[in-house]
């Protein structure tokens, strides 16, 4: 029997790369989108550092900001993992510069997938799309909660919420065989496949390099990128997953605990990691002129957590401990000379 073909959007991305690896390891043929064929060798090399793609990895040129190429990208495909999100400046004063491309890109993928008769689309959203209001400091929430859009929220959080909402609204008006499932991850760390496009692991690199004077009082639900890829595959094939949201968060840890793990677990390589706690008032003060900090000030001291009971119960998913993930991330950054 011929292997099923899966389309993964944004093949140069951090999460997408590990999804490609997992699919190939499970015997699937993979097609992935790139914005330029010049990127194909880099993707092959990154994936090939874990699994030999052979002739089972192919490429399609398609950009989430353009209609061209998407019908061809989904042709002959049984499943789509929509992992990519258009690039944008999270610190920009114009939130629509991030929101509109994310929402319209998702709709482009869904229109092509439903027209092409794809069995199921699994979309990567974010746990921040299922979070309580800014004024709720404690509590545990699940997939039934939707983040209320608020202009005061960071643009990235709004883009993830509004893109996922647009996807479900699209499917509500669609009458056909294609199904949708969405994955809502927390802070994605773990080993890298290449020294470029570090994505969310850049914060770990900065800690190791000693670029951060300390750790702000921010809690993260750390999920390993390998576990996240596994969750996408489970949601892709489980009969019960169609039409469902799944939180893919991990263990809740404070940034200072992450810094301590790096400092203690890396030996000489961790000597530059600062374990000092940065006071909340200093973070807020600095954010007045450093726009990159403004998106994190709303999270200072918050202990909101998400439950993954649904993914565990329906999909049999179980993420690994945060300490293992953080050290695997750090060691791969060092081994691949990314820092």
From TrEMBL:
It holds the Pfam family Epimerase. PANTHER family: NAD DEPENDENT EPIMERASE/DEHYDRATASE, STEROL-4-ALPHA-CARBOXYLATE 3-DEHYDROGENASE, DECARBOXYLATING. This is Nucleoside-diphosphate-sugar epimerase. Keywords: Oxidoreductase. Transmembrane segments: none annotated. Belongs to the NAD(P)-dependent epimerase/dehydratase family. Dihydroflavonol-4-reductase subfamily. The lineage of its organism: Bacteria, Bacillati, Actinomycetota, Actinomycetes, Propionibacteriales. SUPFAM superfamilies: NAD(P)-binding Rossmann-fold domains. InterPro entries: Epimerase_deHydtase, NAD(P)-bd_dom_sf, NAD(P)_dehydrat-like. It comes from the Bacteria. The keyword Nuclease does not apply. Residues 6-243 form the NAD-dependent epimerase/dehydratase domain.
């Amino acid at each position: 029997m011929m292997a099923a073909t899966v389309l993964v959007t944004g093949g140069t991305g951090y999460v997408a790369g590990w999804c490609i690896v997992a699919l190939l390891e499970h015997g699937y043929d993979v097609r992935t989108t790139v914005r330029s064929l010049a990127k194909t060798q880099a993707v092959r090399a990154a994936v090939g550092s874990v699994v030999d793609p052979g002739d089972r990895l192919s490429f399609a040129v398609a950009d989430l900001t353009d209609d061209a190429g998407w019908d061809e990208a989904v042709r002959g495909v049984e499943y789509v993992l929509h992992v990519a999100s258009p690039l944008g400046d999270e610190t920009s004063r114009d939130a629509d510069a991030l929101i509109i491309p994310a929402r319209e890109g998702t709709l482009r993928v869904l229109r092509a997938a439903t027209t092409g008769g794809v069995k199921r689309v699994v979309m990567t959203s974010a746990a921040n799309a299922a979070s309580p209001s800014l004024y709720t400091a404690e509590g545990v929430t699940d997939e039934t909660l939707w983040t209320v859009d608020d202009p005061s929220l960071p643009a990235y959080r709004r883009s993830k919420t509004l893109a996922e909402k647009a996807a479900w609204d699209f499917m509500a008006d669609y009458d056909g065989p294609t199904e949708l499932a969405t994955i809502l991850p927390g802070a994605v760390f773990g080993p890298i496949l290449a020294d470029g496009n570090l994505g969310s692991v850049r914060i770990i690199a900065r800690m190791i390099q000693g670029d951060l004077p300390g750790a702000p009082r921010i809690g993260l639900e750390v999920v390993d990128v390998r576990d996240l890829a596994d969750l996408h595959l489970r949601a892709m094939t489980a009969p019960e997953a169609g039409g469902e949201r799944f939180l893919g968060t991990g263990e809740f840890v404070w940034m200072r605990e992450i810094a301590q793990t790096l400092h203690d677990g890396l030996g000489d390589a961790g000597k530059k990691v600062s374990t000092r706690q940065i006071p909340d008032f200093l973070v807020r003060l600095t954010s007045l002129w450093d726009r990159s900090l403004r998106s994190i000030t709303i999270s200072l001291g918050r202990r909101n957590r998400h439950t993954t009971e649904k993914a565990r119960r329906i999909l049999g998913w179980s993420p690994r401990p945060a300490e293992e993930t953080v050290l695997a991330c750090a060691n791969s950054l060092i081994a691949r000379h990314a820092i």
